[in-house]
């Protein structure tokens, strides 16, 4: 799956709230993206009612069939509920929370919040990683694994991971489906210990937007890193793109800054050092 940049047409219409009738894509998709953006930005909070089909027709100047296609798209994404007698109501969007300083254990982190993650393997194939991955794993003989993580049927992360084939020659899509990758590593004698990570905001391209059910060029959080075992063997090198409804929790600590040391304090420490050296010398000489 390529992650190349997409054109700005749908992005501009989604941000401005206006339809682009020339080069902006299907009208129903533009309306869906505009309403999607309003929901994500909390202009339409959970439980609130969307405008009626007639109101949306007048607002956007489109037919009822176009409006119904837009609402069906939002319903398929799990963003609205269509209720008889109430029309369309904004659904509560689940939020994935993860600790950026914790390696792995995403399933356990979700379970701690009463949530369950599901994993779907998109592809697995022999493929060398980029140069940074080759250096981190100390090999180019790797599997490239692409997976999508779902939370309450909502896609929340797209994962592209490289693992050494020499360590895990038996990996298949069936084996990895809906299974913890690090758990499989432990089952086969390799115990992940952790490694450096970095998080940055990037713009989603058309392919990534389609996978995560978001707008093209919408900002997402990219987590990159390597996981090693206690002996320093590289077990995985990965890129994980998180949907906008992901919250990274960080346990920040205040670093105490040493104050200015007074000359009196230095003098006392020197006196104490001299006293200790004198007593040690007496002990070394032994009883006279």
From TrEMBL:
GO terms for molecular function: DNA binding; DNA-binding transcription factor activity. Residues 25-93 form the HTH gntR-type domain. This is Transcriptional regulator, GntR family. SUPFAM superfamilies: Chorismate lyase-like, Winged helix' DNA-binding domain. SMART domains: HTH_GNTR (SM00345), UTRA (SM00866). It holds the Pfam family UTRA. The lineage of its organism: Bacteria, Bacillati, Actinomycetota, Actinomycetes, Micrococcales. PANTHER family: MANNOSYL-D-GLYCERATE TRANSPORT/METABOLISM SYSTEM REPRESSOR MNGR-RELATED, MANNOSYL-D-GLYCERATE TRANSPORT_METABOLISM SYSTEM REPRESSOR MNGR-RELATED. Keywords: DNA-binding, Transcription, Transcription regulation. One of its GO terms (biological process) is negative regulation of DNA-templated transcription. The keyword Kinase does not apply. Residues 1-26 are annotated as: Disordered.
